[in-house]
Design brief:
Blueprint: E1 13-18, E2 21-26, E3 34-39, H1 47-57, H2 59-64, E4 67-73, H3 77-84, E5 100-102, H4 107-111, E6 127-132, E7 138-144, H5 152-168, H6 191-197
Parallel strand pairs: 3-4, 4-5
Antiparallel strand pairs: 1-2, 1-5, 3-6, 6-7
Length: 198
């Protein structure tokens, strides 16, 4: 199944590790909130802990925006737990406050179209990131190759832009940040923006 923008995000039920405890998680339980769902290749690797820790360090910023962060890999919940119990200065995660989902069957990665099937990395997920709105619709997708880490600042900017457009009905131009000028999506009304920024 290919995940498409403006379509419903595939629901899943799985075991996750949150706060060093095993928890059952279902994507649909987050309806009414925005969700940043991101996939990473494997526990105990190299780029992955930098991303997971970066999202944890910005967690309050996401939560202020009514946004939950969920990470997924094809590792077991036991591997996630062991990684959290490993100190950050030893390549571990330490305490991470959002769920790390165990996609041991690889079905979630398959459903989201990020599972690699060929080559030396077959069986792991690409660095997919899905921004899901309060109704469970996918509003943004990015997929990075394995060696390319993601920017939490850019993800926050996208959350801000999505929420702004939903609230105000205006659209956000390139490199827009909170407080920046927006565009009225109308041929005549948009001239106000373009006359100022042309």
């Amino acid at each position: 199944m290919a995940v498409a923008v403006q379509k419903e995000a595939p629901n899943f039920k799985a075991t996750a590790v949150k706060g060093r405890e095993f928890v059952d998680i279902e994507l649909s339980q987050f309806r009414g909130k925005y969700v940043v769902l991101f996939f990473y290749p494997l526990d105990f690797t190299f780029v992955c802990p930098t991303e997971i820790i970066a999202f944890d360090e910005k967690l309050e910023e996401f939560q202020k925006r009514n946004t939950e962060v969920i990470a997924v890999s094809v590792d077991s919940a036991f591997s996630h737990l062991a990684w959290q119990k490993t100190a950050r200065d030893k390549g571990g995660l330490g305490d991470v406050r959002y769920p790390l989902v165990a996609d041991i069957t690889k079905q979630i990665s398959e459903d989201y179209g990020v599972l690699l099937h060929d080559g030396d990395d077959a069986g792991v997920a690409l660095r997919g990131l899905f921004l899901i709105d309060k109704e469970g619709l996918v509003r943004h997708v990015t997929i990075n190759d394995l060696p390319l880490g993601r920017s939490t600042d850019e993800v926050l900017r996208l959350v801000d832009a999505l929420q702004y457009t939903e609230k105000h009905g205006e659209v956000c131009p390139a490199n827009w940040h909170e407080g920046g000028d927006t565009i009225k999506p109308d041929v005549e009304a948009s001239k106000e923006y373009f006359s100022k920024h042309g």
